[in-house]
Each structure stands twice: as C-alpha cells, then as structure tokens.
Amino acid sequence: MVPFQPLTDAELTRRAQAGESGALGLLLARHQAPMKAVALSLLGTGPDADDAVQDAVLTALSRIGDVRDPEAVGAWLRAIVRNNARMRLRATRERPGLPELTSYGPHPEQVVEQHALRDWIWTGLEKLPPHLRLVLMLRHFSTITSYAEIAEVCEVPVGTVRSRLSQARAAMARALTAEADRTYDNASAITAESRYEAVATLKAAERGPLPREIADLWPRESELVGILSRPGVRLHPTPVLREVLDAGVRQHLRHVVASRSIAIWEMDVTNPADKPDPCPPTLTWLMFREDRRVRRLRVVFPRPTG
C-alpha cells in the first residue's frame, strides 16, 4: 500500500490559482497558525490581531493569482499579515480595510474581477446577516468607506460600525474556508444584471412607463427610506425619481456592486445651470432586495466637508 502523501504548498497554490476552492481552503487552514503568530508578535493579543489575520484571508482569496513563487506561499501569506499589522500600528487616519486590494487600480471590484476566485468573496457575503453584509460592502466595495460615513448611512454609532466590521470579517473568513467545496454563484453575472437594471431604470424614468422586467424590480411595496423620505408617509421610489427629473436633475451611472440581496448604485449628478439648490455631484442608491425585488431604497448623499 502506497502511503498517503499530502499535497505540497506549491501544488495547493497551483490548484487554487486554477480555481480549486478546496485547495485554497486547505492552504489557508495549513498556514492559519503561523499567520496568527505574526499578528500576535506585532499587535499582541486582542481583536486587532484577529482582524489582521482575517483581512489577510480575504486578500489571499482575491489575490492568490498574483503569487509568483508557489513554493513560497507561506511567506507571502505571512507578509500580508505583517503589512496589515504594521498599517494598524502606524495608522493616523481611517483607510479601507483591505490594503492589498485597494492599492491596485481605481476600484477594488475591478481588481477582484481579474481573479477566478472572485466569486468566493460574494458567496461569503451572501452568508452574512444583512447588517454585517452592508457594512462590509460599503467599506470595501464602494466610495463610502470611512467609519463616520458608514455610521451615518446605517444610522448607528461609529463604535457599532467597527464591531460589525470585525464580526463580518471573522464570519467571511470562516464561511469562505468552511464552504470551500460548494458551487458558487457567478458574481460577475449578478453585478452585470444589476448594472443592466440600473441603466434601464434611469432610461425608463426619463422616457415614460417602466418596461415589465424593470417594473417587476420596483413592486408596489417598494419603500423609499432615509433623507428623501417623509416622516409618517410611505413613499414609493418612482414618484420621487420623477420629481427629481422634472427639476432637471440627471443621474449618470458610475459604478455598481451587487449581491443577491443588496445592490449599490453610485451615480454622478448633473444639475441645470440655473438651479438655485443644486444636488451634490454624486449620490448612492442602497437597495435591499427580496425575491429579486427592491423592498427598500435609501439614497445617500456625500457628507459636507470643511
């Protein structure tokens, strides 16, 4: 009987780069202890060390394709933890929590799209409770990234945002490694469908009645909440959008990030030249969905600065 020979780090890395979810899950489990040791040596015991490791797991899930020397993947993983820990030690201002993602290209999603394992991230997001999923999507995949902005959008204290982000990272790390062998939804297809819905919604609002497939997205029970809502009155989003259009304000889709139950549409805004109270130049739609239909829409405007 030939004795069992465990796969080497190099073999697991190559398989992970080819899209084998189980290989990456095993690789991360194998190096979990040394990754934690690096974090503890720099940050000591406590939540910061756990967060540094969890962020490294998310980075590895999205950037495993960048490993040039599969035999040195252990050192690569530990280096990510070390960088995360050092950033936490010297941080003087808030920054998005996935430095290995946000340092490449104009938007994190564009980086994630380059890797075969991008769907792991979105499948992990779907497993989170909505309140945790929202803060993680805002923090890492939108332009609403500061704790203060997220707190305002979610209508919770900044401390609650920090706590939810920590919980979400831990849950993501567990979900993405524990569910390594399942079949994942195609994140690109979900986002592409949401982008089509955004474009069609904007066009239909300008031209008249919504086409059937877009009207189904906005059922009668859809509710506008947040700054554009009216206390004690249930508003459907469509009449408010029409009012904005009648005032000459136009929205132009800039970016979309979506899961099955939360979609974020980021817009650039143009105002009529003579509008006395112009809208801010950007705004964001946050949509909470059930059964592919929007149940709640919150429109978020940038916070004033200065």
Run of helices and strands: HHHHHHHHHHHHEHEEEE
Mean pLDDT: 78
Helix percentage range: 40-55%
Tell me the number of structural domains.
2
Please report the number of helical segments. Answer: 13
What is the distance, rounded to the nearest whole angstrom, between the alpha carbons of the first and last residues? 73 Å
The rough form would be described as elongated
**Structural class estimated from helices and strands:** alpha+beta
Question: What descriptive keywords fit this protein?
Answer:
single chain; 306 residues; alpha+beta; Nuclear Transport Factor 2, Chain: A; 2 domains; 5-stranded mixed beta sheet; 13 helices; 53% helix
Describe the structure.
The chain has helices spanning 9-17, 21-43, 47-63, 73-90, 99-102, 108-112, 118-126, 130-141, 147-154, 158-178, 187-207, 212-215, 237-246, and strands at 223-225, 250-258, 262-270, 282-290, 293-300. The N and C termini lie far apart (73 Å). It has a five-stranded mixed beta sheet with strand order 1-5-4-3-2, sandwiched between helices. It has 306 residues and is an alpha+beta fold. A hairpin with a 2-residue loop joins strand 4 and strand 5 (293-300). The chain has two domains: 9-178, no CATH class; 187-300, Nuclear Transport Factor 2, Chain: A (Roll), CATH 3.10.450.50. The model is unreliable at 92-116 and 180-184 (pLDDT under 50).
